[in-house]
Amino acid sequence: MTLPSTPSFRLDGRRALVAGASSGIGAACAVALGEAGAEVTLAARSADKLNALAAEMAAAGMSVKTLCVDVSDVEATEAAVAANGPFDVLVNSAGTARHSPATETSDTDFDAVSNLNIKGAYFLTRAVAKGLIAAGKQGSLINISSQMAHVGGIDRAVYSATKHAVEGFTKSMAIEWGAHGIRVNTICPTFIRTALTASTFANPERRKWIEGKIKLGRVGEVTDIMGGVVYLASDASALVTGTSLLIDGGWTAE
């Protein structure tokens, strides 16, 4: 027999846009794609943080550019993507959270989280897809969602609602753009140790709750996301679209 050949995880010759790349999960995803051979455009609001990361990546031999953009500004984001694309890969890690009991949620907090996590993510994904369709290219679009897109959580009604919405438009976009060879998926992490989650982990009661829910017995690190993003960006996942990659240590298994 002729042995099958494993599809490549390499991304040489592909252009990747990583939004929310200045820190945490976004920065780790950018490094993972750069290590796999992609030319990575780092996008975020903070030029200083982007330039610092870009310098480190370039020193490690990666191909990297920077793009200052606020994903919640739809018009500016669409213009930036059109001017700098098309991009073969999108990783949207731009997001925010304002946690509170549901009875205490303010409309200001609701709007702030929704505008970035839903509206910003929706139109960024659309912008990259439009560039691919116009160029007649295939691509892989990845939204960083959350395990909270599949369950609920204490003080996380708004955040969970926005991530459930991301799962919904991801599936619909995957259906619409499949004929163009454009795949759309999400990565759904558990609690990952970053600067943004430091206050949560500093609360002994919350940390105990988190560690009790994660079946593998430890919280996540940004390195836990890196293999998954390369998989979804590469030909190794060529038949994967409209679905979620749960990197949650078994949180949602029950």
Strand order of the largest sheet: 3-2-1-4-5-6-7
Question: Helix share of residues?
Answer: 40-55%
Question: What is the makeup of the main sheet?
Answer: 7 strands, parallel
Shape: globular
CATH H-level superfamily: NAD(P)-binding Rossmann-like Domain
Say what the CATH topology is.
Rossmann fold
Q: Could you characterize what this model shows?
A:
There is one protein chain. The protein is an alpha/beta fold. The chain has one domain (15-196, 223-243): Rossmann fold, CATH 3.40.50. Helices cover 44% and strands 15% of the residues. It has 8 helices and 7 strands. A 7-stranded parallel beta sheet has the order 3-2-1-4-5-6-7, with helices on both faces. Helix 2 links the parallel strand 2 and strand 3 (63-68). The protein is globular, with a radius of gyration of 18 Å. The relative contact order is 0.15. The mean pLDDT is 94.
